[in-house]
Specification:
CATH topology of the largest domain: Phosphorylase Kinase, domain 1
Radius of gyration: 18 Å
CATH class of the largest domain: Alpha Beta
Strand order of the largest sheet: 1-2-3-5-4
Number of strands: 8
Strand content: 15-25%
CATH architecture of the largest domain: 2-Layer Sandwich
Helix content: 25-40%
Distance between the termini: 42 Å
Number of domains: 2
Structural class: alpha+beta
Number of helices: 6
């Protein structure tokens, strides 16, 4: 990846667009995704300050001094930092690797691993997966493993749109597309931490119940 030069995304269509970011395939590395912020007009005046913090601050200073500079890329990066602090290759079983921030001609972007299926297609969101295939034994097995991972590592997400379904070597596996991690408070106490994570999982399972009621393209239920 280009670390000391500006990555040109001009003329490249994003493969996904959310409420706060657009996602692009890295023009020189198809296994990397670059996430670019959509800056709301009310926060535009703070972008130069945020950019300076990203560029010149070391990690511990960034975490200490930028609590008020909240944006999706920073929040996701902090989730990755927390995951990396757990150590061990097991954290990447449900989390794409994060390569840090890169300069682009559209602004500062966050570079992460671009997950693909065995056939080379970009991974689908869990909500899209339900629309295409519905719920089946493959999903139930993948979801049980994903829940255990959430409770173990302590990161979460808020929506099925932020969970990716990937088929690798014929096995379905779920990944965080946008990991969330909250700064320790009551979560330092194992009881409160687990209780909070169980509540987050319950909210996601409510979304799964709603998605299950929608007709799928395959007719699966």
């Amino acid at each position: 990846m280009e670390k000391n030069s500006v990555v040109s995304l001009a003329g490249i269509e994003p493969f996904a667009t959310g409420t706060t970011r657009k996602c692009y395939v890295h023009p020189h590395n198809p296994s990397v995704c670059i996430k670019i912020l959509l800056i709301p007009g009310a926060r535009r005046h703070r972008w130069s300050q945020r950019k300076q913090v990203y560029r010149y601050s070391v990690w511990y200073r960034l975490k200490r001094f930028t609590k008020h500079l909240s944006d999706a890329n920073l929040n996701e990066w902090q989730g990755h930092l927390h995951a990396q602090s757990q150590r061990g290759e097991w954290v990447w079983r449900h989390l794409p690797r994060c390569y840090g921030f890169v300069e682009t001609d559209l602004g500062l972007g966050l570079a992460v691993e671009l997950l693909r299926h065995d056939n080379g297609e970009i991974a689908t969101t869990l909500s899209e997966r339900f629309r295409q295939r519905g719920e089946d034994a493959s999903f139930r097995s993948a979801w049980a493993e994903f829940k255990d991972f959430v409770l173990k590592i302590g990161i979460y997400t808020r929506s099925l749109h932020n969970v990716l379904s990937v088929v690798k070597n014929g096995e379905e596996r779920l990944y965080f597309a946008e990991p969330k991690w909250r700064r320790p408070g009551f979560s330092r106490v194992p009881y409160f931490r687990r209780k909070r994570l169980v509540r987050k999982i319950a909210l996601m399972e409510n979304e799964i119940i709603r998605a299950r009621r929608l007709p799928s393209e395959s007719g699966a239920v």
